[in-house]
């Protein structure tokens, strides 16, 4: 979940994502052959199971092809990098995925699944990677699957936990107060690659769009100061501005704007979309019950919940 800086981070500007206590769980077991079986029991979709090997043209599965392609792109690449780390290119694997993070909704679901999958698979194949090494491999997976349109922010945050600062290849953890996060979810998902490509096209065509991306970077730096000081009021004001800048880049949506305004009118110190946009989630800061109540009464909001900062990153259970 992004406190500040999504989209701008793709162009080397800083961003501050935060891990929250919603997790993806991946279990991996080595097989006796070279095939791979993937079961996704609960990804806020209907769930599916596929089994295939290197000689198969495509998985034989009775679900829409785009769904398989989207999900399997990340899983295949995660398993490939795990085999590479273990020097076991022909290892067959059974992979089971469960997640309580909405897919494609701005909460870093793909990063959480990829990070957990790499950790589970490398452990099963006898290799114990440090969280930072998992984060780097997971970033490479997301970059390849998203055709080069990715940053290290989501994967580093998922791997190490807490609040982090990412600027290019410089990734570090941040000390942060226990912030009163409230999340609103409209029940939809988005295509991250398409939204990132849209911002890139706008930035290449218009100087003001390039300036907007730079302004988001400046805002993130001010946000870091507010985090250090524990100034929730200032953080809220900056979140409001960040949402406006993202809307100017064309990545907000009517449902997101309606949830942002509902949270603000419910008493939140600030609210903004989180992630790539286009639908999905917003995050607000509110230490009372007003924002969550207001979101629950908003037709555009399918679900609202309080979210605690997750200080642990990837872990074996």
Automatic annotation (TrEMBL):
Residues 225-293 form the GHMP kinase C-terminal domain. Its cofactor is Mg(2+). Coiled coil: none annotated. SUPFAM superfamilies: GHMP Kinase, C-terminal domain, Ribosomal protein S5 domain 2-like. ATP binds at residues 102-112. Its main location: cytoplasm. GO terms for biological process: isopentenyl diphosphate biosynthetic process, mevalonate pathway. One of its GO terms (molecular function) is ATP binding. Keywords: ATP-binding, Cytoplasm, Isoprene biosynthesis, Kinase, Lipid biosynthesis, Lipid metabolism, Magnesium, Nucleotide-binding, Transferase. The active site is at 154 (proton acceptor). Its EC number is 2.7.1.36. Pfam families: GHMP_kinases_C, GHMP_kinases_N. It catalyses: (R)-mevalonate + ATP = (R)-5-phosphomevalonate + ADP + H(+). Homodimer. NCBIfam families: mevalon_kin (TIGR00549). Belongs to the GHMP kinase family. Mevalonate kinase subfamily. Catalyzes the phosphorylation of (R)-mevalonate (MVA) to (R)-mevalonate 5-phosphate (MVAP). Functions in the mevalonate (MVA) pathway leading to isopentenyl diphosphate (IPP), a key precursor for the biosynthesis of isoprenoid compounds such as archaeal membrane lipids. HAMAP family: Mevalonate_kinase. This is Mevalonate kinase. It comes from Halarchaeum nitratireducens. The lineage of its organism: Archaea, Methanobacteriati, Methanobacteriota, Stenosarchaea group, Halobacteria.
């Amino acid at each position: 979940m992004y406190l500040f800086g999504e989209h701008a981070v793709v162009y080397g500007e800083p961003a501050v994502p935060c891990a929250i206590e919603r997790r993806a769980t991946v279990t991996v077991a080595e097989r006796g052959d070279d095939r791979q079986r993937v079961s996704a029991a609960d990804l806020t979709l209907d769930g599916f199971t596929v089994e295939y090997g290197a000689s198969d043209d495509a998985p034989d599965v009775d679900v829409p092809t785009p769904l398989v392609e989207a999900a399997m792109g990340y899983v295949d690449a995660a398993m490939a990098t795990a085999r590479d780390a273990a020097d076991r290119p022909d290892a067959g694997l059974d992979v089971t995925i469960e997640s309580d993070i909405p897919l494609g909704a701005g909460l870093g679901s793909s990063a959480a699944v990829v990070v957990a999958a790499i950790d589970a698979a490398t452990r099963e194949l006898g290799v114990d990677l440090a969280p930072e090494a998992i984060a780097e491999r997971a970033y490479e997976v997301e970059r390849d699957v998203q055709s080069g349109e990715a940053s290290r922010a989501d994967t580093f945050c998922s791997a190490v936990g807490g609040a982090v600062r990412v600027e290019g290849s410089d990734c570090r953890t941040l000390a942060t107060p226990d912030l009163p996060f409230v999340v609103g979810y409209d029940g939809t998902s988005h295509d991250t690659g398409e939204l990132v490509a849209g911002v890139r096209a706008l930035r290449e065509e218009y100087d003001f769009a390039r300036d907007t991306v730079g302004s988001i970077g400046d805002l993130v730096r001010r946000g870091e100061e507010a985090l250090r000081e524990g100034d929730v009021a200032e953080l809220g004001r900056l979140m409001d501005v960040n949402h406006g800048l993202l809307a100017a880049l064309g990545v907000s949506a009517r449902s997101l704007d309606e949830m942002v305004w509902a949270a603000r009118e419910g008493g939140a110190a600030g609210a903004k979309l989180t992630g790539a946009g286009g639908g999905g989630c917003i995050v607000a800061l509110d230490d009372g019950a007003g924002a969550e109540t207001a979101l629950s009464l908003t037709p555009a909001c399918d679900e609202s919940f309080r979210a605690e900062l997750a200080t642990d990153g990837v872990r074996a259970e």
